[in-house]
Amino acid sequence: MSEAPLDRRPIAARNLKSMQGIASWMARRGFSANGISVAGMVFGTLAGVALFLTSRIPDFARLLWVAGAVFIQLRLLANLFDGMVAIERGTASKVGELYNEVPDRVSDSAILVGLGYAAGGDVLFGFGAALAAMMTAYVRAVGKGAGAPNEFCGPMAKQQRMFLATMVSLFSAAAPTAWQRVPLGCCTLGVPACILILILAGSLVTVVRRLLKIGARLRGAT
Asked: With 50 as the cut, is the pLDDT of residue 141 above it?
């Protein structure tokens, strides 16, 4: 496989022989990197819809939680393979960066807002987490536009957000109903709402960390 650009999100799975073999197979079969990016957005949107429906169709909630987790992972696989296929086929381009970034923002928002509307979620925390996640990407993009390398630091980058969203989906699918509420002083929150608070807070910390790191790089370059 061709060597990847250095200024990319570090993903350990990208170095696995199995993943490289799949990417090579997709490239030989003519898969479009941009098409894979769009497929990732579709999977992310379906994940958000499945999470949303857990509170609307309670009889199928556990199945919908599993579907949400599966679609989140399919979204991440698409995010992995789009860049690998672009490099394998030699089709990486500036337009490809748009296909890489914009669908990601749609997917993040769909999943986190969907989790906010899910059974045990909280709508305000869902929208808040989605906005904070958008800010982490916005700060990275502004930093790159100003001349700094892409800054992917956490503690709540995309991988961590989607890991938590997947884990809470699987937990909600499997755990007894009595385990899915968390008493917090004068109120009780569902586990999904608590996870959204964690994602929101962690994303804000990530925004601050990225701003500090990008600022230091830009000052060092002048």
From this structure: yes
- Give the pLDDT score at 94: 78
Q: Are 125 and 196 a contacting pair, CB within 8 Å?
A: yes
Range of the domain at 90: 13-221
Q: Which of 161, 10, 129, 21 is nearest to 85 (CA)?
A: 21
Euclidean distance between CA atoms 118 and 126, whole angstroms = 9
Phi, psi of 184 (to 5 degrees): -130, 85
Helix or strand run (H / E) with residue 184:
strand 181-184
Give the chain's domain count.
1
Give the residue among 134, 26, 29, 42 at the shortest CA–CA distance from 82.
26
pLDDT tens digits, 27-71: 999 999 999 999 999 999 999 999 999 999 999 999 999 999 999
pTM value > 0.70: yes
The reply to whether 169 falls in a domain is yes
What would the two tokens of residue 187 be?
A: 């109120």
Q: DSSP for 15-83, please give it.
A: G-HHHHHHHHHHHHTT--HHHHHHHHHHHHHHHHHHHHHTTT-GGGHHHHHHHHHHHHHHHHHHHHHHH
- 170: domain CATH number? 1.20.120.1760
